[in-house]
Design brief:
This protein is α/β, with parallel strands linked by helices and about 350 residues long. It contains 6 helices and 17 strands. The chain has 2 domains: about 220 residues, Zn-dependent exopeptidases (Aminopeptidase); about 90 residues, Immunoglobulin-like. About 25% of the residues lie in helices and about 25% in strands. The strands form 5 sheets. It has a 6-stranded mixed beta sheet with strand order 4-1-5-8-6-7, with helices on both faces. It has a 4-stranded antiparallel beta sheet with strand order 14-13-16-17, with no helix packed on it. A hairpin with a 4-residue loop joins strand 16 and strand 17.
């Protein structure tokens, strides 16, 4: 009777394990990692800030360093989707990963923004089920590596297209082939806060090493050659989203209001209180204008809760029209009311 009970218990345990949700980070051995240097070829150069930054070249340099580092760990096979300046479709990149039996596809990129005002590091992942879980879990490890360079953490995000599927083609194609995939946007090539982080082969190689460290921690790898053992590295496994899909934020911040709390008309110092909220993606940056919105200051990270305080200095002999702009985690913004604190003395 005891033997029969033990057999039934074992059978039930196996069934329960089969039903566990999410992509487990402790994959089969060897772990198969495929690295995708974004863009490539003459028609798909990616972002460019000439003459210094051509995205397709930057991603290949980072990918090579990432591969060389990961290959020094035990129990892992590492492949690149391209090793030369080669053009590949997004579907081909996913198919290459699938052909190698990839446990994860890491697509490497560098960012730019339309108004050249954004900066920071971010990760994009699938919005769906276990692929969201894997991407969010890895993304936290990746962003922890990137912020060590002083880069601003913009978070881990999802994006949907008009059909309600993953917006980014390489993520969409990978999910269709049952391969978890993330896009790593290391930093912005077109912003002076970020671009110095990618202005030499040594710095790009450092990014590759950091990417490899995040992967090694995720899969809990060890490297006697490097003196590193992440076998028991602790991290939280993010659950799959409720309802199977994480719907991204598509609206700007709410309740944006500015108050000039004090203004010294002699020194030009103006103290400002700015309030805003965004329950879905949180607050990311703010900026201000002293000419009624014609021009704006450099974006500043939003720190704290729904209300922040800061000070600015306005030019002497001016009558500024002050207003603020608040940005959420998806870079949507809302402008505040404006205030005219008075005429400031010439200095």
């Amino acid at each position: 009777m005891k033997k029969k009970t033990a057999i039934i218990t074992c059978f039930l345990a196996v069934c329960m394990l089969a039903l566990l949700p999410g992509v487990q980070a402790d994959a089969k051995e060897p772990v198969v990692v495929v690295i995708d240097p974004g863009h490539g070829g003459e028609e798909n150069r990616g972002g460019e800030v000439l003459p210094h930054y051509v995205e397709k070249n930057l991603t290949l340099q980072v990918a090579q360093a990432m591969k060389q580092t990961l290959e020094q760990f035990e129990g892992v096979e590492v492949y690149l989707t391209r090793t030369t300046d080669q053009e590949l479709s997004l579907e081909q990149r996913a198919q290459i990963a699938r052909s190698y039996g990839a446990d994860f596809l890491f697509s490497l990129h560098f960012n730019m923004s339309a108004e050249h005002n954004l900066y920071g590091t971010e990760v994009w992942t699938s919005a769906f089920g276990k692929y969201y879980s894997a991407g969010q879990t890895f993304g936290k490890l990746q962003l922890a590596e990137m912020t060590q360079y002083g880069l601003f953490n913009k978070g881990i995000k999802t994006r949907l297209n008009s059909r309600g599927t993953d917006y980014y083609g390489v993520i969409r194609a990978s999910r269709a082939l049952d391969v978890p995939c993330v896009i790593i946007e290391h930093c912005y090539m077109d912003h002076p806060i970020d671009s110095p982080q990618a202005n030499s082969p040594q710095k790009l190689a450092a990014f590759g090493v950091s990417d490899a460290m995040a992967v090694a921690k995720y899969f809990r790898l060890k490297s006697p050659a490097l003196g590193l053992d992440f076998s028991n590295y602790p991290y939280e496994l993010v659950a799959a989203p409720a309802g199977g899909i994480s719907v991204p934020d598509s609206t700007p911040p709410e309740n944006v209001a500015m108050t000039v709390t004090s203004a010294d008309l002699n020194t030009g110092k103006v103290d400002i209180s700015l309030s805003a909220s965004d329950p879905q993606s949180g607050m990311l940056y703010y900026s201000y204008s002293i000419d009624g919105g014609a021009t704006w200051s450099v974006l500043t990270p939003w720190t704290g809760g729904n209300t922040i305080q800061f000070s600015i200095t306005v030019p002497g002999g001016s009558q500024p029209v002050i207003m603020c702009r608040a940005y959420n985690g998806y870079d949507y913004h809302t402008d505040s009311n404006f205030a005219v604190p008075g005429v400031f003395a010439a200095r």
